[in-house]
Amino acid sequence: MIRRVLAAKALRSFADGFIAVVLPAYLLALGLGQLDVGLIGTATLSGSALATLAVGRWGHRCSIRRLLLAASLAMAATGMAFAGLSSLWPLLIVAFMGTLNPSSGDASVFLPLDHTMLASAPERQRTVVFARYSFVGSMCAAGGALAAGAPEWAAGRGALSMLDALRAMFIAYAAIGFVVWLLYLRLPDPHTAEQKSASPLGPSRGIVWRLAALFSVDSFAGGLILNSLLALWLFQRFGMSLAAAGAFFFWTGLLAATSQLLAPLLARRIGLINTMVFTHIPSSLCLIGAALAPTLPLALGLLLVRSALSQMDVPARSAFVMSVVTPAERPAAASFTAVPRSLASALGPTLAGAFFAVGAMATPLVACGVLKIAYDLALFTAFRRVERDLVKESA
Predict the structure, then answer these.
(1) What angle do CA 207, 211, 214 make, to 5 degrees?
(2) Which residues lie below 8 Å from residue 192, measured CB to CB, with a gap of 6+?
């Protein structure tokens, strides 16, 4: 089961990797503006948030396998619709209802469903399993980002026009969605009758909502500088080409993936909360530095350092959430901590697009860094004792 979940994650992340870089270039090629790119990003994250909310509220009554199959078909339909549309409003509707992910992480309805499947792993192996999940996602997203240079390659050789080459990437996205559907088709369903009759959240309700509130601050900040928006920033600020941006995001993804393998080792030594906080703050400082960097090499260097640190909190965060709730609450906990994050991050792209449109290119990056540091400090203050209590109980 875990292997199939990881394989599906790999394929989805590869598709997300090239779509995040291609999306702004495609929208600009259609004649849309910087603000429109932000609006599309907001629509994708808002739709994902509502879908994830539905999973959290009613998903415990349904088969997780069926929900994953439905999401996979939605992924295929989203790719085909984006390839065939060119006007803003139809694209906004598809972005809201579909599965596009303009961020560097998984911001879709797949996330809580996958997490519920993975949480069936033994407790001592759970952080490792989540680290593998994040590692596979980051590695394949890096490969996908590198593939984002394919449209320029095809157009340069006269095989297709640039616009048609960009459209072909969305058709590839749809094809991957169908393959993911085939992988999920043979998954078992981890639900038992007891879990299906359980309420979404029980004794862990308070801690889940506190975590959700803090995660929403982090996600709002992240929404200001999604991969699509960071690509747009590189296009507009330094005139970077699509192929060069794809290569850059390949290396950032590679660094993020490698760092996530180190997260379980670090978590065993210093704890989950410390791993989340003490790696996140330096990465935010690097982002602020990149925003103010006068040259492209310096900006890229700081962004690469940021990538080596910024995702180490992902497996630690997932493992921490699963450890503070009962097994029956896991689907709801995964969803209810993801929904406020998606809703909060949905506000960021439109704001960032507006800042870019008026020439305030550094503002979204600086604001993202400052807010993330504030989140890390609040998380450390609120939950370091909770983790200590968990360690004592399991000893």
Answers:
(1) 145
(2) none
Q: Is 212 in contact with 341 (CB distance < 8 Å)?
A: yes
Planar angle of CA 367, 369, 371, nearest 5 degrees: 65
Question: Are 247 and 150 contacting, i.e. CB atoms less than 8 angstroms apart?
Answer: no
CA dihedral 121, 253, 339, 3 (to 10 degrees): -30
Region of 271 on the Ramachandran plot (φ > 0 left; ψ -120 to 50 alpha; else beta): left
Number of domains in the chain: 1
CATH code, 102: 1.20.1250.20
Tell me which residue of 89, 86, 71 sits closest to 335, measured CA to CA.
Answer: 71
- pLDDT tens digits, 290-346: 999 999 999 999 999 999 998 888 888 878 888 888 777 776 777 677 666 767 778
Structure tokens that stand for 378 in this block:
């609040």
Rounded to 10 degrees, the C-alpha dihedral 315/185/197/334 comes to 20
- Domain of 178, in residue numbers: 2-188+199-394
- Asked if the structure places residue 62 within a domain, the reply is yes
Residue 323 falls inside a structural domain: yes
Structure token pair of residue 109: 């309805």
**194 is a domain residue:** no
The reported pTM is 0.74
Q: For the chain, how big is the Rg over CA atoms in Å?
A: 20
193 found inside a domain: no
Q: Residue 345 in contact with residue 222, Cβ under 8 Å?
A: yes
Helix axes of 296-310 and 272-292: crossing angle, nearest 10 degrees: 170
Name the DSSP letter for residue 33: -
> What would the pLDDT profile of 218-233 be if each residue is shown by its tens digit?
989 988 888 889 999 9
- CB burial of 271-295 (b: ≥16 within 10 Å; e: otherwise) equals bbbbbbbbbbbebbbbbbbbbebee
Question: What is residue 293's DSSP assignment?
Answer: -
Give dist(CA 246, CA 22) in Å, integer: 9
